[in-house]
Design goal:
The complex is a heterodimer of chains A (about 160) and B (about 250). With about 160 residues, chain A is α+β, with helices and mostly antiparallel strands. In chain A, about 15% of the residues lie in helices and about 30% in strands. Classes of the chains: A alpha+beta (about 160), B alpha+beta (about 250).
Chain lengths: ~160, ~250
C-alpha cells in the first residue's frame, strides 16, 4: 500500500511537471512542405511564413522590397509593401529571381493596394539564406505593373 | 494521506516551475557575443571628433556606452540595455555603407534596423535615409546569431545610404531611432484587434486572406482619423519595438 502511494506521488508529480512545461515552450508551427516540395507555393499557406527574417531589403520611393527567408523551411520569396507616407494606394509587384528554370516567381496586385499591404511572391527552396544570384525585385506604381519586374532589386 | 501526497506534488511543481521561469529570464537577457569582423577600411573614420556632443545623462547613468579610440572599430553604443556596434564604414559607387551589428531584444528573427525614417545619415545640414540593408550572415549559423539554447540573439547588416549631389561628408552622424520587428506575412488578426481595442483606438480591421497578398485592411476607423494615423496604430499593434536613440559620430579627416 505504501509503495503504491509512492508510485502515485511520483506519477502525479511527473504529470504536473510535463504539463506545466508546455505554456513556456515556444509555439512551433509545423510546415506542410519541406525542401523542393515548397517550390511555387506561398509561405503563408504552407506554414513557412511563421518564422521569417529579411535577408535583403531596399527602399524605393514609397515602398520597400524584401528578400525574405523562412527559418523553418529554408525558402526565399519576394515581398513588396506600400509604405507611402501620404496614405496613397498603388499597384504593386513582387518578383523573386533565382538561377534555375523557370527563373522567377512574380506576383502583381490586381488593383491598387493600401498602405502597409503587400504583394508576396511564391517561395523557392534555397537551403541557405543568401545564395548568390537570388534577389527580390519590385516596386509600386499608379499604373498596373507587368510581371516580372527586373528593377529595382535587392543587392 | 492521499491529500498530503497531492500537496507534496504541487509544492514540487511550484518549485520546478519557478526555476523554469528564472531560466527563461536569464537566457533572454544574455548579452550577444558579436563576432569580430575584418577591420578592412576604405575610409578612415574618426570618433570623438570635436563635434561630438557630451554624453547625455541617460548615457552616463543608465547605460554602459563606450567609444573606441580614434579610428578604431567597433564603435559601441548601448541604450536600454541593447548594444549596437558600428564595425566599418566604406564609400563605394556613390553610397556610404556601414556594417552594423545589433542585439535582439527578444527571441524573434524579425528584428531589424527599420527603414529610412528610422535609420539615417546626417551631416548637420541634410539627412539621408537608408536605401539598402543586406544581412551579413553569422559565420557559425549562416544566418542570424544564436545563443547556446538556439535562441536568436542578434544580427549584422551592411546598410547603404545613397550620397546625393552636394551632400558634404563632414560632421557625419549615423542614427538609429529604434529597433523594430518587420511586419509579418501572416498577422494574427485577433491579437491585433484585441490590442487595438485595449487602446480604445476605435479601429476595426480584417486580415487579407488572399494568396499573394499580405497585410491588414482597415474596416472602420473613428471620424477625423486619417488612413496614415490608422495604419500607425495597426503597425504599433503588429510589431515590437525598442526605442533608442543610438547615434554614431563619424568624422572624416
Amino acid at each position: 500500500m505504501r509503495r503504491t502511494k509512492l508510485v502515485l506521488i511520483v506519477f502525479i508529480t511527473t504529470l504536473f511537471v510535463v504539463a506545466s512545461s508546455f505554456p513556456f515552450a515556444p509555439i512551433a508551427f509545423a510546415a506542410t512542405c519541406s525542401g523542393n516540395s515548397c517550390d511555387g507555393q506561398f509561405a503563408s499557406s504552407t506554414g513557412c511564413g511563421s518564422s521569417v527574417t529579411n535577408v535583403k531589403t531596399i527602399f524605393p520611393a514609397s515602398s520597400r522590397v524584401d528578400l525574405r527567408f523562412s527559418t523553418n523551411c529554408y525558402t526565399l520569396w519576394a515581398k513588396t509593401t506600400n509604405t507611402d507616407g501620404s496614405g496613397r494606394s498603388f499597384y504593386a509587384n513582387a518578383t523573386l529571381w533565382y538561377q534555375t528554370s523557370p527563373y522567377y516567381y512574380s506576383v502583381s496586385s490586381g488593383g491598387k493596394i493600401a498602405v502597409n499591404l503587400a504583394v508576396v511572391s511564391q517561395q523557392r527552396y534555397s537551403g541557405i539564406a543568401n545564395p548568390p544570384g537570388w534577389k527580390a525585385c519590385g516596386h509600386i506604381s499608379s499604373n498596373p505593373i507587368s510581371a516580372p519586374v527586373g528593377s529595382p532589386c535587392t543587392p | 494521506m492521499f491529500r498530503k501526497s497531492i500537496d507534496i506534488a504541487l509544492v514540487a511543481l511550484l518549485i520546478i516551475g519557478s526555476l523554469d521561469m528564472a531560466g527563461v529570464v536569464v537566457f533572454t537577457n544574455r548579452p550577444v557575443d558579436v563576432a569580430a569582423m575584418p577591420a578592412e577600411q576604405l575610409l578612415v573614420v574618426q570618433t570623438d571628433s570635436p563635434q561630438t556632443p557630451p554624453l547625455s545623462a541617460d548615457d552616463a547613468s543608465t547605460n554602459s556606452s563606450s567609444t573606441a579610440p580614434k579610428g578604431i572599430f567597433p564603435i559601441v553604443k548601448t541604450k536600454n540595455n541593447i548594444k549596437i556596434e558600428l564595425l566599418r564604414i566604406e564609400l563605394s559607387a556613390g553610397f556610404l555603407y556601414a556594417d552594423i551589428c545589433f542585439e535582439f531584444p527578444s527571441d524573434n528573427p524579425a528584428w531589424s534596423l527599420g527603414g529610412p525614417d528610422n535609420l539615417k545619415l546626417s551631416n548637420g545640414v541634410a539627412e539621408i535615409g537608408v536605401y539598402s540593408i543586406e544581412m551579413i550572415p553569422d559565420p557559425q549559423t549562416g544566418l542570424l546569431k544564436k545563443d547556446q539554447d538556439g535562441k536568436y540573439v542578434g544580427r549584422c547588416d551592411r546598410v547603404g545610404f545613397p550620397l546625393t549631389d552636394g551632400f558634404v561628408l563632414e560632421n557625419l552622424k549615423l542614427s538609429i531611432g529604434k529597433l523594430v520587428t518587420d511586419l509579418p506575412d501572416s498577422p494574427d488578426c485577433n491579437k491585433v484587434q484585441a490590442k487595438l481595442d485595449s487602446k480604445n483606438s476605435g479601429i476595426k480591421i480584417k486580415c487579407v486572406n488572399e494568396l499573394g497578398k499580405s497585410g491588414i485592411e482597415v474596416v472602420l476607423k473613428p471620424k477625423g482619423m486619417d488612413d496614415v494615423q490608422a495604419q500607425k496604430f495597426i503597425t504599433e499593434s503588429l510589431t515590437e519595438s525598442v526605442e533608442g536613440l543610438w547615434e554614431f559620430e563619424i568624422g572624416i579627416p
